[in-house]
UniProtKB/TrEMBL annotation:
This is Uncharacterized protein. It comes from Ascochyta lentis. It comes from the Eukaryota.
């Protein structure tokens, strides 16, 4: 038997086709030529398909990570202005809320390296990441991946981090939350975690196999999870808070701003990806094509979120307080476009929940 000859299926059993795209050969029933639920006609096609799927996951992960850091850069309320190491090795970040327009902030000297600024952005932001990025993930994952939202307790840190937040009365010390939230993506290749806020635990962003993550970064003796939620659960909760909070309250402003940022991101991603042929075509595009699309998306998101921040500054520093609610509602209304609608429809289909765009 040659490497491309399949073991015949039992009588009455439908013959499977090799999973590798554009291969129409019958798949083998040999255990060594399967990977999860996928079957292949040869070892070469098995390894090639696995490489392509892993590349797809890595690309999506990197894009989400870059978008999140941009959103935090332009819209995060607090900035890290100093950092130090304690005698025990704990990284201490000092943050305060800038009461200055963006243009004036940019004239201040950078006293903290970008890497530590990003740790500050990631600190206790894991739920916020899911609120703003689920649409983009659904757009790329639909038809290729299954997605869940996962909570894990007792996550270990490579390097402990605490934040000391300036307060007019008394500084507040904040610790990493006891519950960590991530995205779990699954396919025939296996289960992986996407962890955009990993820097808060002293490690870089990047794709992690679920079983390896639990072994390396959790105390299995104390671990009663992970707990899984339906994809889109955190976004739906944010929508609910937005609709029930009092207009003009801190909670209401935060939800409106988050929703406006999400829509702005979705509009950029949709247009760039659509012009490039759509997500299904890009999944298997060459590295040069993908990187061009990824950089175009990131540059577009960077520009759009900077504009959004300037709009917010215009409201905060040039408008009477009595008009803030109207301006915020107008910004949210303007941010809804065909791109956001298309991306959120993908999330609705994947989650099975009733979600408003």
């Amino acid at each position: 038997m040659t490497q491309h000859q399949a073991i015949s299926p039992p009588p009455g059993t439908e013959q499977q086709i090799c999973v590798l795209r554009l291969c129409n050969r019958p798949a083998s029933l040999a255990a060594s030529l399967s990977w999860g639920s996928a079957r292949f006609c040869s070892h070469e096609h098995r390894e090639e398909a696995a490489s392509i799927k892993l590349r797809e996951l890595t690309r999506i992960d990197r894009l989400l990570n870059r978008i999140f850091l941009l959103e935090a850069k332009w819209l995060h309320a607090f900035r890290t202005y100093a950092a130090a190491r304690s005698s025990t090795g704990t990284l201490v970040l000092f943050q305060h809320e800038f009461d200055l327009p963006l243009k004036e902030q940019q004239t201040l000297p950078e006293t903290v390296p970008r890497r530590l600024q990003e740790v500050g952005y990631c600190f206790n932001s894991c739920v916020h990441v899911l609120e703003i990025l689920v649409g983009v993930l659904a757009f790329f994952a639909e038809g290729s991946l299954e997605v869940e939202e996962v909570d894990i307790l007792h996550v270990k840190s490579n390097s402990s981090v605490i934040v000391i937040e300036d307060d007019p009365d008394e500084p507040r010390v904040k610790y990493v939350a006891g519950r960590h939230t991530m995205l779990k993506v699954s396919s025939w290749l296996g289960d992986f975690y996407l962890d955009p806020t990993a820097p808060q635990y002293g490690r870089p962003q990047g794709l992690q196999r679920c079983d390896e993550y639990l072994q390396r970064y959790t105390d299995l003796r104390r671990q009663h999870g992970p707990w899984s939620c339906v994809f889109g659960t955190r976004y739906k909760a944010m929508q609910s808070r937005m609709s029930t909070s009092i207009p003009g309250s801190e909670e209401w402003y935060h939800c409106i701003e988050t929703h406006t940022a999400l829509r702005s991101i979705n509009n950029v991603v949709y247009q760039v990806v659509k012009d490039a042929g759509g997500p299904s075509l890009l999944r298997e595009a060459g590295d040069t094509v993908w990187r061009t699309v990824e950089d175009t998306v990131v540059n577009g998101v960077d520009k759009k979120l900077r504009e959004l921040r300037c709009d917010m500054d215009q409201i905060w520093y040039s408008t009477r307080l009595s008009l803030w609610v109207d301006f915020y509602e107008e910004a949210l209304y303007r941010s809804h476009d065909d791109g956001n609608a298309a991306i959120m429809n993908a999330l609705v289909r994947m989650s099975g929940q009733e979600l408003k765009p």
